[in-house]
């Protein structure tokens, strides 16, 4: 019985094709986006739960806990739950007053 070994060739290193850009490199990912503190006035009057999660930097379950404990006001339209922007602002103001 004869053993046969398979020989593979090393792949060539990939080279860049196409024109080389003279534009400056992008900043690190963490510095690409700037958080604007005045972003809330541009929002619609009622926010969805995912929008509230992003605005308050909270998890979905924590947002629903706030609804159940009546710390954050909300209303439903059919099956959709909405939170007035004024309620989000009031919640943040209440937390700031508690912390002071």
What is the alpha-carbon Rg in Å?
26 Å
Task: Trace the largest sheet across and list its strands.
Answer: 1-3-2
How many distinct beta strands? 3
- State the separation between the terminal residues, measured CA to CA: 85 Å
| Structural class determined from secondary elements | alpha+beta
Describe the 3D structure.
There is one protein chain. With 100 residues, this protein is α+β, with helices and mostly antiparallel strands. The protein contains three helices and three strands, in the order βααββα. Strand 2 and strand 3 form a beta hairpin. The relative contact order is 0.12. The model has no long low-confidence stretch (mean pLDDT 78).
Structural features:
alpha+beta, 3 strands, 100 residues, single chain
């Amino acid at each position: 019985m004869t053993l046969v070994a398979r020989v593979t060739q090393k792949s060539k290193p990939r080279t860049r094709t196409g024109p080389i850009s003279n534009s400056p490199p992008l900043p690190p990912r963490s510095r690409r986006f700037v958080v604007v503190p005045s972003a809330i006035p541009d929002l619609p009057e009622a926010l969805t739960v995912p929008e509230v999660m992003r605005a308050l930097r909270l998890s979905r379950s924590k947002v629903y806990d706030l609804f159940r404990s009546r710390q954050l006001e909300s209303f439903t339209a059919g099956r959709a739950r909405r939170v007035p922007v004024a309620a989000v602002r009031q919640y943040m103001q209440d937390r700031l007053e508690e912390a002071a």
